[in-house]
Amino acid sequence: MTARPLPPSRLSRLRQSDLWWSFTHHRGAMIAAALLFVLIFSAFTAPLYVPQNPFDPAQLDLLNAEYPPIWTEGGQWPYLLGTDTQGRDILSAILYGSRISILIGLASVFFALVVGIGTGLVAGYYGGLIENLLMRFGDILLSIPTILIAILVSAIVRELLPPSLREVGAGGVLVLAIVLSGWVQYARTVRAQTAVERSKEYVQAAQLLRVPARRIMFRHILPNTLTPILVAATLNFGMAILTEATLSFLGIGMPASQPSLGTLIRLGNQFLFSGMWWITVFPVLQLCLLVVAVNILGDWLRDALNPKLR
């Protein structure tokens, strides 16, 4: 009696998929993925090898302030990219700041997905007055520039919080501001897909069998709407990082005691024309690399998942 062959593992199925073939034959996507992995890995493993914790004032020394990068005259080891006016190592600050920016970007996309998918499913499945109310509210938000919504929400919530909680809750305020301006795109996409799937036979059969509406929406309709949502989430991850950096640069984002990339750029911009160019330039380069890598992956994913281009 011959043994039944084992089913292929998920990894094997992934390596045999069209998506994997497209990825391995797209040089830009592979380079962007490798760069993004290096940036994220270095940010979250920074405490293992950087010379200081830039968030700990006890580790800052004014005697080590304003060192230029190590390859220029006056540079000092171990400050590879130099130090700022407070003696904060620029490389350490960039890696710690990148971790904050990445976490805020991921949290913003996740909660925007939850709100947008839930709203889009309800609007597309029930239609009628519910759909009109939800989508018109979304249209109102779309008519206001994203950065303006984020600024208004961030400023209002900060004023409502007591002073002792403003720095502690700065990350949460940023996530809330970005989510309120970012969930509409997911809701509109899911609503359109749900309205199409609602009229198909498998949904009508489930309704005849009295399957609960929640189960139909999340177990049957939602999987058929994930392709455009995945592409939008990837692209919006880079946009969320940029929005956080913009708010922090304007002074209503992360505080100077816990600087993100935007905060570092704002602090360094004050000394850009005094000769200490490295305080601003290197955080800007890190932000550009991070967003460009995400956008390249998003563009590749959009093309790879588009059935018209296969």
TrEMBL record:
<feature type="transmembrane region" description="Helical">
    <location>
        <begin position="100"/>
        <end position="125"/>
    </location>
</feature>
<feature type="transmembrane region" description="Helical">
    <location>
        <begin position="137"/>
        <end position="156"/>
    </location>
</feature>
<feature type="transmembrane region" description="Helical">
    <location>
        <begin position="229"/>
        <end position="256"/>
    </location>
</feature>
<dbReference type="GO" id="GO:0005886">
    <property type="term" value="C:plasma membrane"/>
</dbReference>
<keyword id="KW-0472">Membrane</keyword>
<keyword id="KW-1003">Cell membrane</keyword>
<feature type="transmembrane region" description="Helical">
    <location>
        <begin position="276"/>
        <end position="301"/>
    </location>
</feature>
<dbReference type="Pfam" id="PF00528">
    <property type="entry name" value="BPD_transp_1"/>
</dbReference>
<comment type="similarity">
    <text>Belongs to the binding-protein-dependent transport system permease family.</text>
</comment>
<feature type="domain" description="ABC transmembrane type-1">
    <location>
        <begin position="98"/>
        <end position="298"/>
    </location>
</feature>
<dbReference type="InterPro" id="IPR000515">
    <property type="entry name" value="MetI-like"/>
</dbReference>
<feature type="transmembrane region" description="Helical">
    <location>
        <begin position="168"/>
        <end position="186"/>
    </location>
</feature>
<dbReference type="InterPro" id="IPR050366">
    <property type="entry name" value="BP-dependent_transpt_permease"/>
</dbReference>
<dbReference type="InterPro" id="IPR025966">
    <property type="entry name" value="OppC_N"/>
</dbReference>
<keyword id="KW-0813">Transport</keyword>
<keyword id="KW-0812">Transmembrane</keyword>
<feature type="transmembrane region" description="Helical">
    <location>
        <begin position="29"/>
        <end position="50"/>
    </location>
</feature>
<dbReference type="Pfam" id="PF12911">
    <property type="entry name" value="OppC_N"/>
</dbReference>
<dbReference type="GO" id="GO:0055085">
    <property type="term" value="P:transmembrane transport"/>
</dbReference>
<protein>
    <submittedName>
        <fullName>ABC transporter permease</fullName>
    </submittedName>
</protein>
<dbReference type="InterPro" id="IPR035906">
    <property type="entry name" value="MetI-like_sf"/>
</dbReference>
<keyword id="KW-1133">Transmembrane helix</keyword>
